[in-house]
Amino acid sequence: MRAFRASVALVATAVAVLTSACSPSAGGDSGKVVLTLGSWRTEDLAMWQDEILPAFEKAHPTIDVKFSPTNTNEYNAAIQSQVDGGTGPDLITCRPYDVNRSWIKKGYFEKLDGKPVLEAFDAQALDPWSDDAGSRYCVPTAAVLAGFFYNKDIFAELGLKVPTTQDEFLGVLKAIKDNGKYAPLALGSAESWQLAYNGLYSIGPAYWKGEEGRQGLIKGTKKVTDPEFVAAFSAFDAWKPYLPKGSESLKYADMTQLFALGKAAILPDGSWDINQVAVGNLNVGVFGPPAATAGGDRYLQEMPDMAIGINAASKHKAEAETFLAWTATPEFQSLYVNKLPGFFSMGKQPVQYTNALAQSFADLKKGAKLTPRLGLDRLSAGTPPFDDEVWRVLQLMYTKNLSPQEATAELQKGLSGWYEPQKK
Length: 424
Fold this sequence. Notes:
By secondary structure, the chain is α/β, with parallel strands linked by helices. The protein is built from 17 helices and nine strands. The protein has helices at residues 45-59, 72-84, 98-105, 123-126, 152-158, 166-179, 193-203, 205-208, 211-219, 227-237, 252-260, 274-277, 317-327, 330-339, 356-363, 386-399, 404-416; strands spanning 33-39, 63-69, 91-94, 138-151, 183-185, 264-270, 284-287, 299-310, 369-371. Strands 1, 2, 3, 4, 5, 6, 7, 8 and 9 form a nine-stranded mixed beta sheet that branches.
């Protein structure tokens, strides 16, 4: 799953990748400027080469762009080694939040403040790739969303309606369990990351009020032990009676398969899994995280996944800026997200999605308050990283009956141990 926060472990073989980007661009005798774009998405190589870059180069015949990806787990270390050594790509695909903030501090990126390209995005879309003073360094490419896939045929068979509140959601789960024919939730705890990303971080914002709670933790005005956070953990803890048999050993792929085989009614998941979920003749729908109470605000987890910045050492910044400006256009955004169902434009202008489930996910944004994952902005830059600790305590909640009160107390203790705003 490409939305993971990638490992920063140094991989020896990574240093040899992307070595030509900041050397003088050569087009042979063509006179073209050649830019190199570094990325961690090796699986997208053919898409960029065959469809996206030809569209740019057709409109900009004096610029060629070479897409040169590195394996996900090697990417961070490779970029750091290359940029530090003067061989980094002209265009760098940016990680969100803490990783990118460290790269900004090292001077990797050209500052974009005042550039017209930024006008295509609102402040919340730009924040994940900004410094502490609010200066902008990367242009957003795509985000992912989280919600619930559901089997429409099972819902019709059991006379169920899509839930809109936590009580309705639990009522639907109970009805499915009482019927006995299907697992209510395709959810396991063998891989703890998805308990956070597809569970707590999805439904929790309805309790901690999205950005109000997230920013409160960052600023130190709120604690993880505050009632709204405990309530969020309790809401997630209430799912436990509706897990499938052997949930402790179910991995992410097992959960997807359980749902795809029609053996479970609901799959808490991210939009990135659309192609794996919508298989065969399965009649799949999507609904968003339920509100905490009837009439309560709806919140939706929109996780900034990637952006693109200009290497401050590039010899072709003007051409790189031309490419960035193109990525902010509806032409690029529509082309990109429709080639990668489950990834979504972060621009101000709406984009139509050709994949029906992708459009259903995008429609969830209407009327919802958007918020990113709770633990990746500043809170995981020290030891213990808050995001990793959330993974750990949620797994203990689901396998060792750690209570929501105990879980939040552990998280607060870890955060207070190193994060200055939480030491107050």
